[in-house]
Amino acid sequence: MGATPRVRSRPRREAFMSIPISHRFTDDDLPVEAGRYRLVASGSCPWCRRVLIARRLLGLTEAIPVSWSYGRGADGFWELTDGSGEPGVDPVLEASSLAEVYERTPGYEPPPTVPALVDMTSGQVVSDDSGDMLFDLATAWRPLHREGAPDLYPLNRRNSTDAWDAWLTAHVNDPHGTATHSKDEDRASEAANTVLIAFDVIDTLLARATRMEASREAALTVQAVPPLSAVVSVEQFLCGAAPTGSDIRLFTTVQAYEYGGRSYYPGGEAPSIAFWPALARWFRALEARSGWVGPEERSALGL
Fold it and tell me: The whole model's pTM is what?
């Protein structure tokens, strides 16, 4: 299987996690094995979409099959679907609610979250961290990638992708969730402002790199800018001339923002991404690429 990739450590786990340990694909933890794992995902969830995009781009759709959820069931948790795609008992997981799958996992605390990676040898959830899944699919699963698959975490850009991933988590991914879901108006407003400032920053960096007019540069402060290792990497995409995992992390949140999320921001509907011309061009270019929006996501987003 080749050398074990360097596993990054993060200062905190992303979003809410339902299991105490989200396992990794390393020599002393989870083995990389086609057909052993099953991904539970929903096209409506931006955390799921980052894993689904990587799975398609890397050619892992057969190696890691998916069980789909289209919404909440009678228990208030993610419901599973039967063989026809209707709500019911998933024929592989043998459960009608994701909660039933999580309940097989030691240390589980409700609510169950997606994405969830299930080890079919035990029936337990072994990972519920979308960031870890994205990174591991791009690195540890490399022996099973399709021929010509993109390198989403190239070693010569790792300092840049690490910097972008951490900054996006703190300034875009997590705050967007808070802005759209928090019942605390002050927290939601602060989070929304964090996202909009981050969009100003990203738009400016992309504009400078692609020789567009940096329309939001005047609004920036030094405190808002990402680490230098992230800033110097920006070209057509965040870390060079080709998309990386960092672009995926940004893309799914911008997608969630544009297709419905902005209408839930405090104070009324926030501006369309057209307000940030360079960011909008980046987003539309990726949206048009093969593999970046699958049928399930397209349906969930109303595209």
Answer: 0.91
145-149 contacts, C-beta under 8 A, 24 or more apart: 145/58, 145/59, 145/60, 146/58, 146/59, 147/59, 149/57, 149/58, 149/59
Rg (CA), the chain: 19
Q: What is the SS3 assignment for 19?
A: coil
Spelled out in words, what is the top-level CATH class assigned to the domain 155-297?
Answer: mainly alpha
Helix (H, G, I), strand (E, B) or coil at 115: coil
Q: Can you give the residue ranges of every domain in the chain?
A: 37-144, 155-297
CATH fold of 37-144 reads Glutaredoxin (3.40.30)
Place of tokens 């519920």: 128
Cβ neighbours of residue 223 closer than 8 Å, sequence gap 6 or more: none
For residues 219 and 296, the answer to whether their CB atoms sit within 8 Å is no
State in Å, rounded, how far the first CA of the chain is from the last one: 39
pLDDT in tens, the chain (303 residues): 333 344 444 433 445 567 877 899 998 999 999 999 999 999 999 999 999 999 999 999 999 999 999 888 888 889 999 988 889 999 999 999 999 999 999 989 889 999 999 999 999 999 999 999 999 999 999 999 999 999 999 999 999 999 999 999 999 999 999 999 999 999 999 999 999 999 999 999 999 999 888 777 776 666 678 999 999 999 999 999 999 999 999 999 999 999 999 999 998 889 999 999 999 999 999 999 999 999 999 999 988
CA atoms 238, 114, 69, 269: torsion sign = negative
- Name the nearest CA neighbour of 174 among 17, 66, 2: 17
